[in-house]
Structures are given as C-alpha cells and as structure tokens.
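Thread amino acids onto this structure.
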C-alpha cells in the first residue's frame, strides 16, 4: 500500500509521539493505580485529561489561524517535559489535586497533537491516503506497543519510575527535532476567522456529514469504556510490571495479526467495521467472567476490534471531511473532537461511581457500551448511503 511522501512525514511524527503517549498510557496510569488500586484515581486522571484535551484542541485549532503545525508539535513536546518534571518533583498531600495537576499538561499534549495531526491529514490527504495512513499509523502504534512496555518495564525495575521519567526527555527531544521537518500546515491564509460560521447547522449542513454526529457520540462511549477498562483489566491480572508489559505486547501482536488479515482479504470496509464492533462487543461480554484469563481474552478481542474500527471508521469520516475547504475542515474537526470527547467525559463521570468490576454500575455501563458498539456501524452506513445519494444527484444535475 503506497502512501504520499507528505503522509510519510506525518507518520514519522506519529511514531515519535506514540512512544511518549504509549508510556503515559501504561506506566503513568500504573503509577497512579499502584498507590491505592483505585478505579476512581485512574478515572479521575483520565477525566481531567479529556476535559483539558477538549479545550486544548480548540486552542490549538485557533493557533493554526496564525501559526503552523510545527508550533503545536513544539508545545506538545514542551508539555511532555512539564509532565515528567511534575511526576519527578511534585509531591502533595491532596492526592486528587496532585492527579489533576499531572493530567492537565498531558491533556494539552493530546489536544495540541490531535489538532495538528487532524488538520495536517485533512489538508494533504487524498482519498485512499486515509485508509493507508490509519493502517500504517496503527501498525506503528502496535510496534511501539511491543517494544516500549518491555523496555520501560526493565528500566523501571532497574532505576525506578523517576529514572524512567528522566529518560523520557530523550524522546521529547526527538519529537521537538521532528517538528522542524514536518510540513508546516497553517490556516493563516484563510479569509474568514475559524470561529465564524461555527454554528452546528452551518457546519453540518447536509445528511452525510450530520450522521457523523451520532456516530462520534456512540464511538466516544465505546472508545472510553474499552480504553479505561483495558488498562484496569491488565492491572488486575498482575502487579508485576514485566507481566503487564508482556500482556501489552500480546495485545499489540493481536492487532498486527488483524492488520495482516485486513490486507489479505478483499472485503468491503463496512463489513470490516461490523467485524470490529462485534469483536469489541464479545470482548466486553467475556470480561464478565472476571477470571484473569478471560480479562486477557477480553483485551485481545477489543484490541483486534479497535484495529478495524480505527482503520475503517476514521478513514471513512476523513474522506467526507476532505471534500471541504481547509477552514471548513478545521471547523468540522473541532466539532468532531468535541462530540467524541463529550461522550468520553460523560462516560468517565459515570465510571467514577464504579467501585469494582462486579457491581451493578459496571454492568449497566457495559450494557450501554454494547448498544453504542452496534450503533456505530449503523450510523456510519447511514452516512455512506447519504453520500452516495448526494453523488448521484450531482451526476444528474451535471447532465
């Protein structure tokens, strides 16, 4: 699968940042978990992070009307440095305040990085580039997920968390250097301000793009439930850092196998999306058995499902978004990020009330996530059908 040179540069940026984000996703969450083994603590960290992420995405998009994506990546690297300095030096008696302070720069990192990546991809991507990009981005992520956890598990055992936090500055430096070589995408040349014509009815003005809204809301629920409980399931299996790292390697290998199957079989993207959501749903149900073996199987199934979801669902939405002008794309992406994060934040608020993996609240949220998992392919198909009807109408008008 060939991809454009400009897309390859984005993938290089993706690889550098993935190392940092993968470390935060596993070991910073584990660092927080180890204190009290509290679902509330991990959920609180992710809740503050996503609230900050949503605001940072809007701020990053606004900065792109004056500066380029290179600035956003440098801010991302700077916030990474602040995060690991705080983890190394900051101590507070109020644990929730300490967690919130750590989560804020992480949220800014994610928000600025997501704004930069989305605007860059929508600006330079063409048609088939999107599926190629998301496929390669996933495999880069999984390769990092194989190497990163094991390496840092040994490093933490050898020199402790503080040593590993300091070592992360090497990768932050790499990300900073990469920022000087990526394509400098900007919205500075646009005549109309970003936040002008930002009303929902103006941005989502035709059926195909309006179906993206419920699709994003449902997807946010599924992504957040899987993302948080995949971490907690893994931490519940073992407290040994190397075992946790090896389990993450197993999940990465599962995703790679899913990618190989995806590339060898000629099946419509809509079918792959359904397969992905079925795998995620079965994974959710398997987790009900609670035994460590079933928790691992659950994570394997949801990881496989997320590969198909990430490749097909994202590429389908970006194909629609790419039909618009740069400033219109920025507005759509801003709304899209807000819809995804609103449902993520709502889910995290509900998860705050989950005390264990056997209570009624956990079962209710699992059931709600299952419903949303089956709604995502339905809404995506509605969007594709509406787009096909619009294309047919345009052909008729052209005759």
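Threaded sequence (399 positions):
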């Amino acid at each position: 699968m060939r991809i454009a040179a400009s897309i390859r540069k984005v993938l290089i940026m993706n690889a550098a940042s993935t190392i940092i984000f993968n470390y935060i996703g596993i070991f910073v969450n584990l660092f927080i978990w180890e204190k009290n083994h509290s679902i509330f603590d991990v959920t609180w960290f992710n809740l503050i992070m996503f609230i900050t992420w949503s605001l940072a995405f809007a701020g990053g998009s606004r900065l792109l009307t004056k500066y380029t994506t290179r600035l956003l990546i440098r801010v991302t690297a700077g916030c990474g440095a602040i995060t690991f300095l705080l983890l190394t030096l900051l101590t507070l008696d109020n644990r929730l305040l300490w967690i919130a302070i750590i989560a804020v720069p992480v949220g800014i990192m994610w928000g600025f990085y997501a704004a930069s990546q989305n605007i860059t991809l929508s600006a330079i991507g063409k048609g088939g580039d999107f599926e190629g990009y998301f496929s390669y981005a996933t495999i880069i992520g999984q390769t990092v997920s194989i190497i990163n956890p094991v390496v840092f598990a040994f490093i933490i055992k050898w020199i402790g968390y503080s040593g590993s936090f300091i070592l992360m500055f090497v990768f932050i430096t790499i990300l900073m250097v990469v920022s000087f070589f990526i394509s400098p995408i900007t919205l500075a040349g646009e005549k109309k301000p970003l936040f002008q014509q930002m009303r929902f009815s103006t941005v989502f003005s035709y059926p195909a793009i309006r179906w993206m809204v419920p699709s994003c809301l449902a997807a946010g629920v599924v992504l957040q439930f899987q993302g948080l409980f995949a971490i907690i399931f893994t931490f519940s299996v073992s407290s040994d850092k190397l075992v946790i790292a090896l389990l993450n390697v197993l999940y990465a290998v599962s995703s790679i196998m899913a990618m190989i199957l995806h590339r060898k079989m000629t099946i419509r993207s809509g079918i792959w999306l359904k397969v992905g959501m079925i795998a995620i749903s079965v994974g959710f149900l398997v987790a009900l058995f609670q035994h460590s073996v079933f928790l691992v199987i659950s994570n394997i199934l949801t990881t496989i499902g997320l590969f198909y979801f990430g490749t097909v669902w994202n590429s389908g939405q970006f194909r629609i978004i790419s039909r618009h002008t740069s400033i219109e794309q920025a507005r759509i992406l801003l709304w899209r990020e807000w819809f995804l994060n609103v449902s993520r934040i709502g889910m995290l608020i509900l998860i705050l009330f989950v005390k264990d993996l056997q209570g009624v609240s956990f079962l209710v949220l699992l059931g709600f996530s299952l419903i949303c998992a089956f709604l995502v392919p339905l809404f995506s198909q509605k969007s594709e059908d509406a787009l096909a009807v619009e294309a047919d109408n345009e052909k008729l008008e052209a005759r």
